[in-house]
TrEMBL record:
Pathway: Amino-acid biosynthesis; L-histidine biosynthesis; L-histidine from 5-phospho-alpha-D-ribose 1-diphosphate: step 1/9. This is ATP phosphoribosyltransferase. It catalyses: 1-(5-phospho-beta-D-ribosyl)-ATP + diphosphate = 5-phospho-alpha-D-ribose 1-diphosphate + ATP. Catalyzes the condensation of ATP and 5-phosphoribose 1-diphosphate to form N'-(5'-phosphoribosyl)-ATP (PR-ATP). Has a crucial role in the pathway because the rate of histidine biosynthesis seems to be controlled primarily by regulation of HisG enzymatic activity. It is an enzyme of class 2 (transferase). It is found in: Cytoplasm. Its EC number is 2.4.2.17. GO terms for cellular component: cytoplasm. GO terms for biological process: L-histidine biosynthetic process. Signal peptide: none annotated.
Length: 298
């Protein structure tokens, strides 16, 4: 049976459940607190919830076929896994988040090179931290943290390497970013054994295709645009890439109906431009996802 390990906890769990729901991959959990579940897609898929930091190792070991976790833990664990897809969702936003080197707001340093040798840097990411200072040619004393990392300053550390999403935690703890260490996304990973098995590989690629489609779908809105035939030449070039002609209006002769998928970020400008070019009206509809044929994905 194909197996999937998904992130448990306040940061990635809910967003992951949302993505799977949009993809149509229903995660059946006996109870909200249950750490085991199943998905029925091409046969049963076993689902287990684990802490994000544990996921890369349990996928690399073969205990699970596929996992979803943060890029930070994939690098930190040094697990031998392949990334199949990246999704820009964090705890509260649909954007990549960062691992940063931060210092107290009143620290004199303006660059990482200003930090004196022996600077104590608290972090949960000791491997990434060591590598970062090695690459910078600096000698820092990496102090392992198990959370609440900002609180290590000043007694236990002079600086931190920690996750930043909104920046609230740094602000409320009197810290500022000195350097971005990594930019992170949520990633779907698989071990070499999974991809080497042809029966699993195809099922995994099908799951990834649905997740990708769901992630793309939530960033787009379908627009249905009614256009008089004489304005088609000005309206059509302004439709989103990949748009199509849906037909003709049943009520009004000489009116053509176009449809397309507009990225949310461009929706207002696209709407204004289409109306200015001669469109009669535009109807917006929420979409879930567009699933491409297998040969176009993965
Ligand atoms: N705003 C955020 N705060 C903390 N972690 C975040 C945030 N957004 C994304 N992440 C990512 O979520 C994952 C959290 O993994 P971790 O194993 O540290 O969880 P945790 O400390 O056990 O707690 P929780 O998942 O409950 O926050 C990491 O990959 C982290 O980078
Ligand atoms: O930039 P922000 O939006 O404030 O998010 C980042 C904060 O969230 C995480 O802490 P978390 O609450 O998971 O606790 P922890 O430090 O104990 O892991 C992280 O360690 C930062 O402190």
């Amino acid at each position: 049976m194909l197996s999937l390990v998904l992130p448990k906890g306040s940061s990635l769990e809910q967003r992951t459940l949302d993505l799977f729901a949009t993809a149509g991959l229903e995660i059946r959990r006996a109870a909200a607190r249950s750490q085991r579940a199943t998905i029925d897609y091409g046969g049963p898929i076993r689902v287990v919830f684990c802490k994000p930091r544990e996921i890369p190792a349990v996928v690399a070991s073969g205990a699970f076929d596929v996992g979803l976790t943060g890029a930070d833990w994939i690098e930190e664990s040094e697990a031998k896994v392949d990334t199949l897809a990246s999704f820009a969702f964090a705890k509260t936003s649909d954007a990549p988040w960062r691992l940063v080197l931060a210092v107290p707001t009143d620290h004199p340093a303006t660059d990482v090179r200003d930090l004196p040798d022996g600077t104590r840097v608290a972090t949960e990411y000791v491997n990434i931290g060591r590598r970062f200072f090695e690459e910078a040619g600096l000698h820092a004393d990496i102090v392992r943290s198990y959370g609440a990392t900002e609180a290590k300053i000043p007694e236990l550390a002079d600086a931190v390497i920690d996750v930043v999403e909104t920046g609230d935690s740094l602000r409320h703890n009197g810290l500022r970013v000195l350097r971005t260490v990594r930019t992170c996304t949520s990633q779907v990973i698989a071990g070499p054994h999974t991809l080497a098995d042809p029966s699993k590989r195809e099922r995994v690629h099908n799951v990834v295709r649905l997740l990708r489609a769901a992630a793309a779908g939530t960033r787009r809105t379908m627009i249905t645009v009614r256009v008089p035939e004489q304005s088609l030449h000005t309206v059509t070039p302004l439709m989103p890439a990949g748009s199509w002609r849906a037909g003709t209006d049943l009520a009004e002769a000489g009116v053509v109906v176009l449809q397309g998928l507009a990225p949310h970020t461009e929706l207002l400008q696209t709407t204004d431009a289409l109306l200015a070019a001669g469109a009669l009206d535009i109807t917006e509809s929420d979409i879930r996802k567009t699933v491409p044929a297998p040969h176009t994905a993965c």
